[in-house]
Amino acid sequence: MGQVVAQKAASSLAIAAGDQGSQQYLTFTLNSEIFAIGILNIKEIIEYGTLTEIPMMPAFIRGVINLRGAVVPVVDLSARFGSKQTTVARRTCIVIVEMTQIVEDSEVRQDIGIVVDSVNEVLEIPPGEIEPPPSFGARIRSDFIQGMGKVAGKFVIILNIDRVLSVDEMAQLAAVGARLAPEGEDGSN
């Protein structure tokens, strides 16, 4: 699969986990807007590469990638938010995030790739600089938004990555991963 562009450093994780005041966020651009995800949800960032399309999946699921032997579904956030699919360009990349959902009283962790136009930087945003999600006027569903971070006089949309996909969609993604993971083990592939 694509070459690794960047990967979380253990030291930045220790700093983010140890500092209860400010939290670090990875910022990225999508359709000319700046979004952020908590750095503790980010596993790595990889170059956009060849995806395997899966039939009968929602339009916002671009396909799956093989990430060191693991099948990882890739979601196009632009399409998920109701816009057109992301046009792949030179700076387009896939951010690998770890999502957690509660399904039938058990915690399910799933790695998911999200397609973004470009990755910007890691920012530290103090809790006092984060406003609650707007109740109207946002281009995406308000339940997808954790808050609006104020950075240098501009707002950054902080995503609640665990809500970007519903439990039903999460289960569908897990089923795809389970179907494809044992590839070749039963001799059928």
What's the alpha carbon Rg, rounded to whole Å? 17 Å
- Structural class call reads alpha+beta
Distance between the terminal alpha carbons, to the nearest Å?
19 Å
Would you give the CATH topology? OB fold (Dihydrolipoamide Acetyltransferase, E2P)
Provide the spatial order of strands within the biggest beta sheet.
1-4-7-8-6-5
Low-confidence stretches: 1-20, 184-189
The CATH homologous superfamily name equals: CheA-289, Domain 4
CATH classification, class level:
Mainly Beta
Structure, explained:
With 189 residues, the chain is α+β, with helices and mostly antiparallel strands. The protein has a single domain, classed as CheA-289, Domain 4 (OB fold (Dihydrolipoamide Acetyltransferase, E2P), Beta Barrel). It is built from 4 helices and 12 strands. The strands form 2 sheets. The chain has a 6-stranded mixed sheet with strand order 1-4-7-8-6-5. The chain has a 6-stranded mixed sheet with strand order 9-2-3-12-11-10. The chain is globular. It starts with a strand and ends in a 9-residue tail after the last helix. Mean pLDDT is 78; it is low at 1-20 and 184-189.
